[in-house]
Amino acid sequence: MESTSVQPLPTQRNRRGMMFRRRYLAVASTILFLCAVITPTTAGSAATTSLLMDTYVQADRATTNFGSSVRLSTEGRAYIWRNSLLRFSVQVPPGEHVVSAKLRAYSEASATSTEFVDVFTTSGGWTERGVTWNNAPARGTWLGKAGGFAAGSWVEWDVTKGVNAKGGEQNFKLESNAQKWIGFKAKESSNSALRPRLVVTTAPDTVISTEAAVVHGWGTRVAGDEFNYAGAPDAMKWNVYNSAGHAGNGIRSPGQVTVDGSKMVINGTPDGTTAGMGAKFANQKYGRWEVRAAGSGDDEYHMVSILWPDSENWPCDGEIDYAETTGDWSVIKFFHHYGCSNLQTSAYKPVDVTQFHNYALDWSPRGIVGYVDGVKWFEDTDPAHQPPGPMHQTLQLDWFPDSTANGAGEMRVDWVRVYAAG
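-> structure tokens emitted (422 positions)
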């Protein structure tokens, strides 16, 4: 469920120290389900396949094993029935999947246009030197048939639907309706070039983006921070707070924020020592912002991604909290503050905030739109609600102590990206 609302607040709260409580009346809003499907253009490649074992079993020699045979046998005559078993190992490159699989065997006998050799999936568990007619696995899904081939030729079956998209062990069974013997070269053949083979083609996985910038085509980013370094936040990009905490609760200490090589982390202690920081980049009126963030810990800690007015004239010049928790790590909220009376529009959406999600904001003369994982969930198009001047990004883990036992909290941010206004 999601909701939006508009109302005045009974008291005011400045993100740099003034307190207020948020209350809102839920009104249903509409989610627009959108996604960007990105298909890499890399040409198809081949997986690595290995023939691990092959053999055949025979009905009139039900306890005999033929694992050392140099040929595979099939036959459809009653009470002589012969079926062949093959096992391959398929290794698919990371980030790819199987798009085609062809089983090929070199024939030692011909088949007319009405004589066929069928291929089925079958289960594993059998061994080349242990399987017999009596303990052979049953056939599974029918994959195809081949007929009308000459002796001394390659016979091919399309077994794509029987091969796992990510590879692994693949077992096949060959059976025939022909009232005669039809055989193929086996793994034990002295000519390695004529042994059975599984030819597998792979392609890059399709990526479905959950970034609003990709889904909605925002183009190349113009500013931001990928947090791909270690130590303190980049001083050229961030002003790290060293002050009293939100509404005077606890303190904001530069020592509580660090970058670990892949993300920015703010740690909040049980006694309210936490952190926050404001961007020195993209101080502008209009634009698009997106952060990838997660948080966890005590509910007294609130994770928040904000656009804050450069003028510091709050509340008159507005505040856009486009991703905020308020005591529940399973719900994300949007608060758009406007006007000197500190009115607001808001929305909330069930989200597992402990996992990374992409939170985005598109601010233009047409209005303010919020996104979670590329899906629109907030919109305010009233011209009277527009912030009057430039704003900038802030990231904060604010402490709201209550009557419950105090605990630690954490905010994690993979990156912050800014795009030109559209």
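The chain has one helix and 33 strands.
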